[in-house]
């Protein structure tokens, strides 16, 4: 905000979805915000954050839902109505399940914390990959990163991170250790990455969204699924090469 907006221009963060054709949660440029937060439900959106049982929660992480149909919400998926019901309406009866983790803090500010199926569980402790990536990306040599959970017999999962460096910097064992120590310092030792890989690029959609799902599938030798959405399909081979799977 200092470098780009000169602390004069607001940065607007929002959360929406193709399935609702609009914003579920969004801020207002005339309302004060905490960094990375949103203000509340968008117009016509009965948004909420709920626990595993579907009860509203505040001050702790839960699932983003919409309790009533919104004006622009889709009525189904083309030629697959059962899939639409199964994906969005079956977890909590009569409630639309978005699939994102969210938090409403004690002051009423909303946080979107990433996809629920991206959550990493290390020795019973849960963390969103975006939290780890935020710390890693704060390192002056790092351009971007993607973190996933890798199956582990004892811990359940360990954290594996794929990192793209800024131009002019070179991967090294020392840098990998430095990044692990940075995460341990900011988030705690249990969340220090077990594995760090340096790559030239990460799989991303044409809109720039990094596809952790594809990274996870490569690491765990699972089918990649549809990769036609990728802007840079060559990044798949890059990750396979780094892992010795090509």
Shape: globular
Q: Level of helix content?
A: 10-25%
Q: Per CATH, what is the topology of the largest domain?
A: GMP Synthetase, Chain A, domain 3
Q: Could you give the count of β-strands? A: 12
Main sheet characteristics? 4 strands, antiparallel
Averaging pLDDT over every residue, what do you get?
86
Classification by helices and strands: alpha+beta
**Pattern of helices and strands:** EEEEEHEEEEHEEHEHH
Number of helices: 5
Q: What is the beta-strand fraction?
A: 25-35%
Count of the separate structural domains: 2
Uncertain ranges: none
Superfamily (CATH H level) name of the largest domain: ANL, C-terminal domain
CATH class of the largest domain: Alpha Beta
Strand line-up across the major sheet: 4-5-6-7
CATH structural architecture of the largest domain: 2-Layer Sandwich
Gyration radius from CA atoms, angstroms = 19 Å
What is the first-to-last residue Cα distance? Answer: 41 Å
How would you summarize what this structure contains?
The chain is an alpha+beta fold.
Question: Describe it for me?
Answer:
With 246 residues, this protein is of the alpha+beta class. It has 2 domains: 15-115, Luciferase, Domain 3 (Luciferase, domain 3, Roll), CATH 2.30.38; 119-243, ANL, C-terminal domain (GMP Synthetase, Chain A, domain 3, 2-Layer Sandwich), CATH 3.30.300.30. Helix content is 21%, strand content 26%. The chain is built from 5 helices and 12 strands. It has helices at 81-89, 129-137, 173-187, 212-219, 234-243, and strands at residues 15-17, 22-26, 40-41, 47-50, 62-66, 96-104, 110-115, 120-122, 125-127, 142-152, 156-165, 195-198. It has a 4-stranded antiparallel β-sheet with strand order 4-5-6-7. Strands 1-2-3 form a 3-stranded antiparallel β-sheet, with no helix packed on it. The chain has a 3-stranded mixed β-sheet with strand order 10-11-12, with helices on both faces. Strand 11 (156-165), helix 3 and strand 12 form a beta-alpha-beta unit.
């Amino acid at each position: 905000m200092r470098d780009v907006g000169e602390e004069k221009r607001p940065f607007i963060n929002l959360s929406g979805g193709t399935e609702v054709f609009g914003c579920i949660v969004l801020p207002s440029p005339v309302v004060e915000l905490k960094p990375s937060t949103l203000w509340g439900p968008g117009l016509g959106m009965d948004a909420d954050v709920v626990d595993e049982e579907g009860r509203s929660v505040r001050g702790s992480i839960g699932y983003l839902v919409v309790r009533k149909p919104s004006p622009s919400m889709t009525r189904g998926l083309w030629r697959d109505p059962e899939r639409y019901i199964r994906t969005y309406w079956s977890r909590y009866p009569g409630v639309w399940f978005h699939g994102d983790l969210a938090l409403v803090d004690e002051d009423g500010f909303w946080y979107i914390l990433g996809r629920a199926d991206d959550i990493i569980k290390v020795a019973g402790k849960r963390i969103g990959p975006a939290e780890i990536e935020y710390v890693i990306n704060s390192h002056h040599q790092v351009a971007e990163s993607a973190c996933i959970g890798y199956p582990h017999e004892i811990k359940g999962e360990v954290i594996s991170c794929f990192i793209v460096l800024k131009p002019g910097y070179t991967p090294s064992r020392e840098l990998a250790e430095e990044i692990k120590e940075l995460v341990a310092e900011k988030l705690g030792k249990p969340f220090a990455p077990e594995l760090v890989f340096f790559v030239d690029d990460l799989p991303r959609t044409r809109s720039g969204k990094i596809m952790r799902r594809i990274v996870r599938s490569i690491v765990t030798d699972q089918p990649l699924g549809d990769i036609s959405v990728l802007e840079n399909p060559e990044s798949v081979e890059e990750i396979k090469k780094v892992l010795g799977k090509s």
